[in-house]
Amino acid sequence: MAGQFLTWNLVHEAQDQSGATAAYSVQCGEQQLPGLWELEHVVVDGRWAILCPWGISPLQGGKPVPWVWDGKQLYAIAMNLPVLRMRPHVLEGHAQLLVMVGCGPDNSNLASSGLWRWPLQVADETNLTKNGWTPAYEWRDIAVNAQGVWQLLPRWREVHQVQHPCADGDYVWRQPAAREALWWWGGLHNQMSNNWRPQAARCEGVLVTQSGAVLCGVGPSACPHHAGDGWLSLEWLARGAEGEPHHWKLHWLRPHKHEVWTLELRAYMPVLQLWDAQQGVQWSDAEMPALEDGGAVQTAQHVIAPMRWEGAQLDVLKQSPVGLWVRKQDAVYADAIALRDDWPWERPVPTSPQRT
Predict the structure, then answer these.
(1) Between 20 and 30 A from 112 (CA), which of 3, 76, 128, 177?
(2) Secondary structure of residue 182 in the 3-state scheme
(3) How many domains does the chain divide into?
(4) Which residue from 142, 36, 145 is spatially nearest to 99, judged by alpha carbons?
(5) How far apart are CA 114 and CA 189, in angstroms?
(6) What is the pTM of this model?
(7) Each residue's pLDDT tens digit, 55-67
(8) Cα–Cα distance, 95 to 93 (Å, whole number)
(9) How many CB atoms lie under 10 A from the CB of residue 219?
(10) Exposed, middle or buried by CB within 10 Å (0-12, 13-18, 19+), for 90?
């Protein structure tokens, strides 16, 4: 770093228990850093060393957070999630941390379901030692800001257009004119890896509006109403038979009316395009099979006329104790949603108990 070598010197070996690591002293050139450290670290752009302090392992209830050494100052990154591993990032001034986000019964943590569905509890010493309970992990980004201070980044990015059903990554779409915004996060696809794939639609995500309305189990594709009356959201349900279109749902979430209208769609890959006041919802089916063997994939244009919503299924949203407006089937997840640590706006205010 800045022409100085970082040197780790073993102080004592790891103890014989789960998650235990060896303890090292760290020296930068001629300067000895205070405290004991794990060997786990990452050097970013030759300017910063992200270090992990030695102590009780997160697997034993410890809460280590990363520290930054910039050649002059040593300081902790402000965060509450315990860190286990670190790795470089493709962007300058960034790094990634593997953090423990909780723990729960092993038979409930299904890889094919969103993390928000898992009945996670705090990963403390009591819960981690329960029979059949395992930790849950997540990679999080950290970065240095304009003031030179490293911080934990939110999971989401800002967008300004409709996202494809296969789009990867949490996002926020703000609609200032309507005084509303949408936050979509989570999301999986039914492949071996959840890395982005251009033809694998994402599902199992959560949509939250700034006004507190929630839809669970939906994909990343959403479209704002032309007059600010809510959002469209696509939900992938199941594959169709061989050569047949897949099963989808199209939800019209109306936060200020506390309701959701739902239509069923059959399509290979529906792509929302525009919500027009006169014509209705314009969308295309972008992955229709070729008409002949070896031919190009076909695209067909479709319109959902406004009158179609007259026959849609209606779900009424009820306010949960944590202040979110949810469908009956989503109410069980409201607490976990409210506990997210990277809300783009103020968290919902819990409802006060009514006096009788």
Answers:
(1) 128
(2) strand
(3) 2
(4) 142
(5) 10
(6) 0.84
(7) 999 988 899 999 9
(8) 7
(9) 27
(10) exposed
